[in-house]
Amino acid sequence: MVQVMEIGRFGKDGLRRTERALPEPGPGQVRIRMGAVSLNYRDLMMLLGLYNPRQPLPLIPCSDGAGTVVAVGEGGGAWRPGDRVMGAFAQDWLDGEVDSRSGRHTLGGPLDGMLAEEVILSETGLVRSPDSLSDAEAACLPCAGVTAWHALVAQGGIKSGDTVLVIGTGGVSLFALQIALAHGARVAAVSRSEEKLARARALGAFAGIHSAATPDWGKAVQALTGGRGVDHVVEVGGAGTLAQSIEAVRPGGRIAIIGVLSGVSSQIDLRRVLMRSVRLQGLFVGSRRMLEDLSRAVDTTGLKPVIDRTWPWQEAGAAFEYLAGGQQFGKVVLTW
């Protein structure tokens, strides 16, 4: 038996600690002792019943996690006990373009996630953790890190000299800031908090725009870039920020649509998109290959995920409450 956290019913009070039987790994499977998980907004939505109200319960939540291999089933020749690994978010999306099957087997819903003492995953659903990162840091990569990598590298083709706009200072946005800087790009940030903007500048952003004081921040971004606009926008806000992102991007630039923090439905003037050849790209995290590429880049560049706060895993309820408050700068992590 192993200790797990599971969603017994939807709602903030629906998380419970319990025990489950965990069999030995079967053919092609690997058993992992968890070291850390990080929380994503998706995990919070899943807990509240907002992501998929038809999700069968109980469910072990959390899409991100890192730990150590403790047992390998027959045929699991890629891994050995003692290997440090991360779970790929989309267990069946190994490489290539996204297709209709890519979201069917994702950790933390519909599949059980990583918030357990030990988990069993397919050997193909794992990636070696970067040697330069702790488990707490590695646990931040599979969703937030891969999403930012997908937006700027795999799809965006970012290059030295590009300009990037990140919205907010959550996990994806700060990964995007760090990845962009590692590629020689310049980064501006938008936030409702002057304190968080100061911290983003300390990480390397060349400018910060306080959206509460400057609600028409798309034009402010244009001014910062001499009227050109930015090459890339990492759009995590959704309906409430998309119009300003369109204003901020250059003709022919790219907006990676990732989050819906400010809503899912928006009315926008499509003429500005059409006449300026703006590219709107929806993104669904990424493949195992993207996680492998990011992991190598982390070891090469020395990138360190920004962790706001860490809790013991037994205090997952408090961590989710903190995440719901939206005050974090970077990632929220649970450790064993």
CATH superfamily of the largest domain: Medium-chain alcohol dehydrogenases, catalytic domain
Assign a percent range to the helix content: 25-40%
How many β-strand runs? 15
Structural class: alpha/beta
Biggest sheet record: 7 strands, mixed
Spans where pLDDT lies below 50 across 5 or more residues: none
Q: Write down the overall geometry.
A: globular
Which CATH class of the largest domain applies here?
Answer: Alpha Beta
- The CATH architecture classification of the largest domain is Alpha-Beta Complex
**Count of separate structural domains:** 2
Helix tally equals: 10
Strand content: 25-35%
Ends distance = 16 Å
Cα Rg = 20 Å
Return the average pLDDT rounded to an integer: 94
Task: Give the topology string: H per helix, E per strand.
Answer: EEEHEEEEHHEHEHEHEHEHEHEHE
Kindly summarize this structure in a few lines:
The protein has 336 residues and is an alpha/beta fold. It contains ten helices and 15 strands.
What report would you give on this structure?
With 336 residues, this protein is of the alpha/beta class. It folds into two domains: 193 residues, Medium-chain alcohol dehydrogenases, catalytic domain (Quinone Oxidoreductase, Chain A, domain 1, Alpha-Beta Complex); 127 residues, NAD(P)-binding Rossmann-like Domain (Rossmann fold, 3-Layer(aba) Sandwich). Strand 11, helix 7 and strand 12 form a beta-alpha-beta unit. Helix 3 packs across helix 4, helix 3 crosses helix 9 and helix 6 packs parallel to helix 7.
